[in-house]
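Practice problem: predict the structure.
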Amino acid sequence: WYYDYRKRHILEQKEGVVESVNGGRIQVRIIQSSACASCKAAKQCHTSESKEKVVDIYSDDTEYVIGQRVMVMASYKVGLVAVCLAMLVPLVLMTSILFLLTACGYDEITAAVVSLLSLIPYYIILFIFRNQINKRVTFTIEKL
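Answer:
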């Protein structure tokens, strides 16, 4: 019986193929599929989706070669940070501005438009700090 404590914190893992290795950056092609894609009846109902994606993984291990099969993993912490940056922070920002403007006496349409427009600076800030975010939101890789 063997229990790997590192895998306890794994949110998701996908099998992939190494596309390129440039210094510390490894590009891996994975197949991202919807929940329906693994269903046995997916071919009959035509709702299954799957598409290939290339994921950048930063690693000091340079022993990977093009065409090698690997396992790409993301931890719960990475998933939580990604969900917070992509959904939670914009939701809190929009609703707080919406409630603040309606409490100050603005009509609902103006408050709604301003709260939606408040996302523009947020996403510009995310774009500016994308390199710092890439350092926190990382994937790990293992050889198969």
